[in-house]
Amino acid sequence: MQINDSDTTRGSDIISSQNQTDDLKLPKSLASQEHAQDIDEALYDDEFFGGSVDRQNPERSLLLAKTVAVTAAEHGGENIVVLDMTERTALFDYFVIVTGSSRRQLHAISEEIDQTLKVKLNDKRLNIDGLDDSRWIVLDYGTVVVHLFDEDTRMFYSLETLWSDTPRVDLADELRAINPNAVK
């Protein structure tokens, strides 16, 4: 992992600042210059910044993501992409990105995803955002984050380009059998 020194705080900076102010309280074992390098190594370790090393239930996360994708396809969602984020972040496992053709369709897909996950998998949404504007609706299921876009907003934010080095879960055949427009 490449980190630009000018954009980060180094262990030696933390220790120097502690000598000047008491705002930052470090354990005494770390509060010396000789431990600055250890702090730097811990802060910038790829394992620290990479995916979570202690996934609770990766199989369930994948099942949730696949169920979301299938549900979206069944309700007219288009260009469905499932990104495997497990090696990119410890916050969640999958992004599911879907395009809808109208505000009404985006709402319907959102409601159907909620209902399907609740009934079939006994899972419930933790949060939702964007429902009022309905150009980009985000559904948070903890390990799976669903992005429902109208076409223009999806092109503008282009999450697939932002995360272009992220592996995709291949559901093309399954989704195309449900809805020919579900996959490009």
Question: How would you portray this structure in words?
Answer:
- With 184 residues, the chain is of the alpha+beta class.
- It is built from eight helices and five strands, in the order ααααββαβββααα.
- It has a five-stranded mixed beta sheet with strand order 1-2-5-4-3.
- 25% of the residues are buried.
Q: Gyration radius, to the nearest Å?
A: 21 Å
Unreliable stretches: 1-32, 38-53
In what range is the share of β-strand residues?
Answer: 15-25%
What is the straight-line distance between the termini?
32 Å
Task: Give the overall shape, derived from the CA principal axes.
Answer: globular
Order of helices and strands: HHHHEEHEEEHHH
**Strand line-up in the sheet with most strands:** 1-2-5-4-3
- Compute the number of strand runs: 5
